[in-house]
Amino acid sequence: MRTRSGLVLAPFFFLLVACGGGAAQDPKTSADANSGEDKARPAECEAVGKHLVALKDRPKGQGPADEMRSLTGAFLRLADDLKKQPIETPDFKEAVAELADEAESFGNQLKSMGPIVDEMEQIKGQLSAWEKKVTSTANAFDATCNNGPQAECEALGVELQKVPNIEGEKFAEHAAAIEKFIAAMEKLQVKDAKVKSSLTSMLGALKSGVPLMRRFAVLLAESKKVDPAGEEFKAKVNRVAEMCGVKPEE
What we know:
By secondary structure, the protein is an all-alpha fold. The chain folds into 2 domains: 12-27 and 42-113 and 226-243; 117-217. It has 10 helices and no strands. The chain has helices at 30-35, 45-56, 64-84, 90-112, 114-146, 150-160, 171-186, 193-207, 210-223, 227-243. Helix 2 (45-56) runs antiparallel to helix 3 and helix 5 runs antiparallel to helix 9. It is rod-shaped, with a radius of gyration of 27 Å. Residues 1-38 have low confidence and may be disordered. Keywords: Signal. Residues 1-23 form the signal peptide.
């Protein structure tokens, strides 16, 4: 099973906005070049660019929860630094002010996500332990069947092959599929007492993961609510980048 260890934090700051440091790139098309329109590059680009590079180069967190805290602090610092940055160019001043506001908004949203990420990490550990428990009971069932009635065990083996494939992030669907599988298995008539006991243990172990998956699905949906804010931040960065002569990210 692959839980969402990467979480919600695809680095929205991946735009290495090279507003400063070296000559500016030229994003103009040939049509633009022939139009005779050429806006001057704002003098404050280098200073703003350094703040954005500092966001990218911040110390990375150890694990998703620590990374969330690192990101939160980095975005709030960026907002504060941009607000304090002296800018005289009117249009650029407006663009940077909007970027600062978006960085602050995004940072605060990330901050509110802290408890969610912490709980997701906790459940990931519980799901890992659950997988080991299911594997252990499955191995015990195999051992029981090795010394049990061959015909009955072979028939059960055919049914056990229908166990759901648990991959990807659709945890609510996985939980429902497991419950449906367990319900079908519990309807089977098992005559051998040892085989029945071993099967019951295995199904019980499998069932214990259902509440964890359902809770993780809820948390995962909550974690994705910051995605639009990340896209909006990217748009604000692209606007600043374009004004500084840097080709915006797609």
